[in-house]
Design goal:
The complex is a heterodimer of chains A (150) and B (188). By secondary structure, chain A is mostly helical. Chain A has one domain. Helices cover 65% and strands 0% of the residues of chain A. In chain A, α1 packs antiparallel against α3, α1 crosses α5 and α4 packs antiparallel against α6. Chain B is mainly alpha-helical. In chain B, strands 1-2 form a two-stranded antiparallel sheet. The longest helix of chain B is centred in the N-terminal third of the chain and has 25 residues. Classes of the chains: A mainly alpha (150), B mainly alpha (188).
């Protein structure tokens, strides 16, 4: 799978692609639902200036939506950083931008927001861009311990 | 000028974080064992690798500079500006990480950046909720803040508050001179 003779790795093995897609899906879902839960959690918090600091902090740790949102955000961050161990940065970052698409869908269908046409156009552009990036190889250089011994 | 300084600082620190994390992680072993041992090994690697820790620090700097950006710029300027980080990340991947970037990926990245720019510049219209305020001074500050912003939704919300305030007192009020007895929460 890893070749020291060539910098370019193409095409990506199927199982490698499947693992990448799985981690990108985890990152996208973690990011979108994490943001949604953080927004819902903060919505239930009192005004910071209106209550004592210890009561505010107690409110933070008792807020289930906020804690779930923070946990999902941590999952998203770890999934993204793990992806860097075998996939290109220039592949991972645009693909994770799919979270904008999921966030828009969540806004429209879960929160009942009125999403404007221009925003749907943006979502379509993101989908097109991600689909273009997804057709390129997951890694174009040698990754992992073989690239540089620790 | 100050706004663009914050934008540049936010975008570059975010991209530096991505590049450092990618550099640090690409030098380690790939996650192949999905059991507790494999995940534990990866987590240990993430929290001990110097480049990755520097990447986390850059993310922290980026977060706080984004907060700084929010203090000097509107949301409709601040968030789309961060779409630049996709392009900076790709340039960093090409020049620093020496990734081979096919033309399809370049076009894809530009499309994603343009899409993010469109998607976040036209957020869904928030529904203004007007309710009596406990703190009159804070209410007036909120209204002034909303009136000074250029967002159409914010202006509509401020006008709704003005109308509600006038209705409550039975006379029109000048929001710039008197405390408005209401506060506005722009909810999604």
């Amino acid at each position: 799978m890893r070749s020291n003779s060539s910098e370019m790795k193409q095409p990506s093995p199927p199982q490698h692609t499947a693992k990448t897609l799985l981690f990108i899906a985890i990152a996208v879902v973690g990011n979108s639902f994490g943001n949604l839960l953080l927004a819902l959690g903060m919505d239930r918090m009192p005004d910071f200036a209106a209550v004592a600091l210890h009561r505010y902090l107690l409110g933070l740790v008792e807020n289930a939506a906020l804690l779930s949102g923070a946990a999902l955000t941590a999952v998203y961050t770890l999934a993204q950083v793990s992806l860097f161990s075998w996939a290109d940065l220039s592949y991972v970052v645009p693909c994770i931008a799919s979270s904008y698409v999921l966030s828009t869908l969540l806004g429209e269908f879960v929160l009942g927001e009125r999403v404007q046409m221009v925003r749907w156009l943006g979502v379509a552009l993101i989908c097109f861009g991600v689909s273009l990036v997804a057709t390129t190889p997951v890694a174009t250089k040698v990754h992992g311990a073989e690239a540089q011994p620790r | 000028m100050i706004t663009w300084t914050w934008v540049v600082f936010t975008v570059f620190s975010s991209s530096c974080g991505d590049i450092l994390c990618a550099k640090g992680m690409s030098e380690g072993a790939e996650l192949e064992d999905f059991g507790p041992k494999g995940i534990g090994h990866t987590l240990r690697y993430i929290v001990t690798r110097r480049l990755v820790i520097l990447g986390w620090l850059c993310y922290a700097v980026s977060f706080f500079s984004l907060m700084g950006l929010f203090s000097v710029a509107e949301l409709t300027v601040a968030v789309p500006a961060t779409a630049l980080s996709f392009v900076i990340d790709t340039l960093g991947a090409f020049f620093v990480l020496h990734e081979h970037i096919p033309w399809k990926r370049w076009i894809g990245v530009l499309c994603v950046s343009a899409g993010v720019l469109l998607a976040v510049q036209h957020p869904a219209a928030p529904v203004p909720i007007v309710r009596p305020a406990m703190n009159l001074r804070a209410g007036a500050g909120e209204v002034r803040s909303l009136l000074t912003r250029s967002s159409r939704a914010d202006r509509a919300a401020a006008q709704a508050c003005e109308h509600q305030s006038a209705h409550d007192h039975g006379r029109p009020q000048n929001l710039y001179q008197e405390s408005a007895p209401c506060e506005i929460l722009a909810k999604p």
